[in-house]
Design a protein that fits this description.
By secondary structure, the chain is α/β, with parallel strands linked by helices. It has a single domain, classed as Metal-dependent hydrolases (TIM Barrel), CATH 3.20.20. The protein has helices at residues 33-42, 57-69, 86-97, 121-133, 147-156, 176-190, 214-228, 248-258, 264-279, and strands spanning 3-7, 47-51, 73-78, 102-106, 137-139, 162-164, 196-199, 233-235. It has an eight-stranded parallel beta sheet. Strand 7 (196-199), helix 7 (214-228) and strand 8 (233-235) form a beta-alpha-beta unit. Helix 3 packs parallel to helix 4, helix 5 (147-156) runs parallel beside helix 6 (176-190) and helix 6 packs parallel to helix 7 (214-228). It starts with a strand and ends with a helix.
């Protein structure tokens, strides 16, 4: 079974999204799983995991509604406010958790504008509550410089099951020294057996998002395979953001080609098995 573990949808008539905005007209419209369906069919992708696109209950409700009606949606990574008072967070999260379609939790920590936001006292207490439930926590960074914060979360909440989105935003198109720095930071996380990561969102870190080449992306995928192994990595298309980074087909081909040297079972893990296990699909 092939799973795209990182797909977004949004309905601009249903709720507010800080992004996308008018600066990206290609995706500044309602986006549905149906819009992605031709690519899913073309590449033999059996199902998707929907991942929150806004820190709102409305966004999570939309994803759950779609999950109820579209069999391609195998799970939803939803939202509950990790910065809330833990006394208030617990019942909200527990109620959300009772919905069997919820397979993970995420907050848009990379746009909070607060250094080390995820390491706040409330956040860590609420992460511990999530960890105790057995639900994985997706974490998203704006640059790889934020990866040490994730490593500290794992150190301080020992049973946290962390999923690093987009390989922590490696410096694709950057310097070799930046690559070494990223690899060392990601390696600190990969050393924890409870951590996994998504090969997703590998757009250029220099210039336009679509300035990357497969040759630039491949070394980062190879590094991730060396650090995590295929059974702790999962494929994610990052649609529709990937539209800005050259399109779904280009991203899929770059990832798929980079996996050609793996054994069949290893390739199957990255393309679906890991996601099924981590998210309990």
């Amino acid at each position: 079974m092939t799973i795209d573990a990182h797909v977004h949808i949004w309905n601009l008539e249903r709720g507010h999204y800080d992004w996308p905005d008018a600066s990206v007209p290609q995706i500044h419209r309602t986006m549905s799983v149906g819009d992605l369906a031709p690519d899913l069919d073309r590449f033999g992708i059996d199902g998707v995991v929907l991942v929150q696109a806004a820190d709102t209950a409305v966004d999570t409700a939309l994803m759950l509604e779609v999950a109820e009606s579209d069999p391609r949606v195998r799970g939803v990574v939803g939202w509950a406010d990790l910065a809330a008072d833990p006394v208030a967070f617990a019942p909200v999260f527990d109620d959300l958790r009772r919905n069997g379609r919820i397979v993970g939790l995420r907050n848009l920590m990379h746009v909070k504008g607060v250094p080390q936001w995820i390491l706040g006292a409330r956040q860590l207490e609420n992460v511990a509550h999530v960890a105790a439930s057995g639900l994985p926590l997706d974490v998203v960074t704006s640059t790889h410089a934020e990866l040490p914060d994730i490593a500290e979360v794992i150190e301080r909440v020992r049973d946290a099951r962390v999923v690093v989105d987009h390989l922590g935003k490696p410096p694709v198109g950057g310097s070799e020294s930046a690559r070494r720095e990223w690899r060392a930071m990601l390696g600190d996380i990969a050393s924890e057996s409870t951590a996994t990561a998504k090969i997703s969102g590998l757009s250029s870190s220099v210039g336009p998002l679509d300035a990357w080449t497969p040759e630039q992306v491949r070394p980062f995928i190879e590094d991730a395979l060396a650090l995590f192994g295929p059974h702790r990595l999962m494929y994610g298309g990052d649609w529709p953001v990937v539209v800005l980074a050259g399109g779904y087909e280009r991203a899929w081909n770059a990832v798929a080609d980079s996996l050609n040297g793996l054994e069949d079972a290893e390739r199957a893990a990255v393309l679906g098995g890991t996601a099924a296990r981590v998210y309990g699909l």
